[in-house]
């Protein structure tokens, strides 16, 4: 029986193997040589297409014409004396004729902010600084918060007396030493934080003795408080109180202190408003002519402010109120303003006039004038300061709270 058939491997003879390798090497060199030749021919063809350089004929400058019609060379040294401007007397199309006399009535003072640019303002014939000049040279107050002057509420930190007896009223008020032999008045600008331009003007341009009051619901209120104190201003915040024309749909109306609401709800809303920032020494009202007449409800609110170690400045909008009496009875330092500087007319001259008569017909030691965040109000205050009588000194509102007992 024949054995199994096995497949035997066959080897290519060595001659055939080397021949195939030589053929592959020659094929590679051939392809490379063909590519080099074609590249050189393509480059020569491209150069041939370019052709000889073409030279364009030179442009001939136009004849300027007779000498009397040629324009003068304003840049020539002999045409421009060193002390003259060749365009000084050229009138622009549509430019006003500044040589014509000014006729017609003087535009009324609307109290709007002046346009940029330098101008001279005359008051009683005397020039003063322009409306953008700063009268603030005050040193900064201690940065808030001061440790130990707050407690934690459901909404954040709210003012509270320290264990050593320190209060927000004493610690955050502006230090003031009155000059002997002088009378004093206090000025407050309120409604700040709503208009950023006017707010910056009040902080930077008014002296540090002017007290600044911010709306409690102002966004980023702490930043404004810090900036005001850094420029030497003591600060109050305004809490909304119910007025006769109260609209529950107004923004922030949900936190308004109401005359008919339960005391617990008013106290909760007050804590929310007090938690918006730290560094103020007192509270003032925004509206509230209806709440002021509800003495039982008002007494509960004033008691809570006193327990917080604050002061209260009432703007005096409702005549005949007993706010001062009620506040002082519960241990809250309370005073009322004597004049609203811009309630009826927002005019710098009217504001200045009201400040000038602030001491007339009053027995209050330090009368208080309150203005709102109008550009004309800031201008009117500055006008008065620059021309005030030498025997009257400006004092912060906290000083008035001490004196007007």
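Q: What amino acid sequence fits the structure above?
A:
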């Amino acid at each position: 029986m024949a054995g199994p058939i096995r497949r035997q491997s066959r080897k290519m003879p060595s001659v055939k193997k080397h021949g195939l390798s030589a053929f592959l090497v020659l094929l590679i060199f051939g392809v490379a040589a063909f590519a080099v030749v074609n590249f050189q021919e393509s480059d020569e063809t491209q150069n041939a297409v370019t052709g000889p350089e073409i030279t364009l004929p030179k442009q001939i400058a136009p004849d300027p014409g007779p000498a009397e019609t040629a324009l003068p060379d304003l840049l020539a040294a002999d045409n421009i004396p060193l002390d003259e401007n060749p365009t000084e007397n050229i009138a622009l199309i549509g430019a006003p004729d500044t040589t014509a006399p000014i006729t017609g009535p003087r535009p009324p003072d609307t109290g709007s902010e002046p346009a940029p640019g330098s101008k001279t303002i005359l008051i009683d014939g005397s020039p003063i600084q322009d409306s953008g000049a700063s009268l603030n040279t005050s040193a900064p107050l201690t940065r808030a918060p001061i440790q130990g002057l707050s407690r934690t509420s459901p909404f954040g930190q709210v003012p509270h007396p320290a264990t050593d007896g320190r209060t927000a009223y004493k610690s955050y008020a502006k230090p003031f030493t009155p000059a002997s032999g002088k009378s004093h008045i206090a000025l407050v600008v309120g409604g700040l934080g709503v208009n950023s331009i006017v707010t910056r003007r009040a902080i930077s341009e008014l002296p540090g003795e002017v007290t600044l009051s911010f709306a409690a619901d102002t966004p980023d209120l702490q930043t404004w408080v810090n900036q005001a104190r850094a420029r030497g201003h003591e600060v109050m915040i305004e809490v909304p109180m119910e007025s006769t024309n109260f609209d529950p749909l107004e923004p922030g109306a949900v936190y308004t202190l109401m005359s008919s609401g339960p005391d617990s709800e008013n106290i909760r809303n007050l804590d929310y408003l007090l938690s918006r920032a730290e560094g103020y020494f007192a509270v003032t009202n925004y509206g509230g002519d209806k709440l002021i007449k509800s003495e039982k409800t008002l007494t509960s609110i004033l008691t809570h402010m006193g327990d917080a170690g604050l002061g209260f400045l009432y703007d005096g909008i409702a005549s005949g109120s007993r706010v001062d009496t009620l506040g002082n009875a519960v241990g809250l330092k309370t005073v009322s303003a004597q004049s609203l500087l811009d309630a009826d007319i927002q005019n710098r001259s009217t504001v200045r006039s009201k400040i000038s008569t602030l001491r007339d017909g009053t027995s209050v030691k330090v009368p208080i004038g309150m203005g709102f965040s109008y550009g004309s109000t800031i201008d009117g205050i500055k006008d008065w300061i620059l021309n005030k009588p030498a025997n009257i000194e400006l004092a912060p509102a906290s000083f008035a709270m001490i004196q007007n007992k």
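Q: And what stands out in the fold?
A: The longest strand covers residues 183-192.
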